[in-house]
């Protein structure tokens, strides 16, 4: 972005901070890594988020939109499933999705021993499957409808973001506005159905609280495990809040992870020597067996 690039070069403060006005809003550009780290890891809720296009409200009203004390409280609840020990329990789900993908690719190989395929759609489906298994205890087929609706929702949001927003425009009954409302309603209904089935299964003991949704529902005002959660009064969530957080995990987790994996594969293909080093490290630590969560801590080159 030439304007921002020129602003940084002209008005920076020792190469760290520069400021420009976006209409009536002052905007800080931070290019110092340590200061970026401080801003992004700040956990007290004092740093405000940048203003959002009101059309974004249909995407999610979860943690990503909150500020201040409410953000601090919600963050403590939502970050609970991401403690290292709880993530380790999800390793079998990661492996199951990964094995299915590899087996599907093996079947694509011709008798000559090679084939060409576009990995991007497969990686997208793979990350969607992983999120569905680890977050909601279901396979991709069950979450597929939600992913499809959210993809269309993102396209409509990007279109809106590329034009000047007029106050109140989102309330006009235009074709695209009505479509946005319909998509939001469908996504919420699908997630609510999944949540109600999960709550019912948790009450009967058929389903534990070992996935993301189960952990969130422990803090829900309809949870069958309310007595097991300490200080619940300060952490209680409504079903609507759980739905918004589910929307956020679907939205933020799938596209970012699939982009990262695809780009990693491209870089490994561009640098075969590192590809070989990574492969040798995996074979050295795991042999021919599938890696476990404990193995992950020993990987050095793969971690890089």
UniProtKB/TrEMBL annotation:
Pfam family, one: p450
One GO cellular component, as annotated: membrane
Keywords assigned by UniProt, alphabetized: Heme, Iron, Membrane, Metal-binding, Monooxygenase, Oxidoreductase, Transmembrane, Transmembrane helix
GO molecular function ontology, one term from the record: iron ion binding
Entries under Gene3D superfamilies matching the protein: Cytochrome P450 (1.10.630.10)
Gene Ontology BP term (one): secondary metabolite biosynthetic process
Residues annotated as signal peptide: none
UniProt keyword Metal-binding, yes or no: yes
Predominant location: membrane
Localization of this protein: Membrane
Similarity section: Belongs to the cytochrome P450 family.
Name of the protein this chain belongs to: Cytochrome P450
Organism the protein comes from: Aquilegia coerulea
């Amino acid at each position: 972005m030439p304007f921002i690039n020129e602003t940084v070069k002209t008005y920076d403060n020792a190469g760290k901070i520069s400021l420009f006005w976006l209409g009536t809003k002052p905007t800080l550009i931070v290019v110092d890594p340590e200061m970026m780290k401080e801003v992004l890891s700040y956990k007290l809720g004092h740093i405000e988020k940048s203003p959002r296009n009101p059309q974004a409200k249909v995407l999610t009203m979860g943690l990503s939109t909150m500020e201040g004390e409410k953000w601090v409280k919600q963050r403590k609840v939502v970050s609970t499933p991401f403690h290292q020990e709880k993530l380790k329990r999800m390793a079998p789900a990661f492996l199951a999705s990964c094995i299915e993908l590899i087996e599907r690719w093996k079947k694509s190989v011709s008798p000559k021993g090679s084939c060409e395929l576009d990995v991007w759609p497969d990686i997208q489906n793979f990350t969607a499957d992983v999120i569905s298994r680890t977050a909601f205890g279901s396979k991709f087929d069950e979450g597929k409808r939600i992913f499809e609706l959210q993809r269309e929702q993102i396209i409509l949001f990007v279109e809106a973001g590329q034009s000047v927003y007029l106050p109140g425009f989102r309330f006009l009954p235009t074709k695209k506005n009505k479509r946005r409302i319909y998509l939001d309603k469908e996504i919420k209904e699908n997630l609510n159905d999944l949540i109600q089935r999960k709550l019912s299964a948790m009450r009967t003991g058929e389903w534990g609280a070992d996935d993301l949704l189960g952990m969130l529902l422990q803090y829900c005002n309809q949870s069958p495990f309310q007595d097991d959660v300490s200080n619940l009064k300060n952490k209680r969530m409504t079903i609507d809040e759980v739905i918004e957080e589910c929307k956020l995990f679907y939205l933020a987790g799938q596209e970012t992870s699939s982009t990262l994996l695809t780009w990693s594969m491209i870089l490994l293909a561009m640098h075969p020597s590192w590809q070989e080093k990574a492969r040798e490290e995996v074979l050295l630590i795991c042999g021919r067996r599938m890696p476990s969560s404990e193995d992950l801590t020993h990987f050095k080159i793969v971690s890089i």
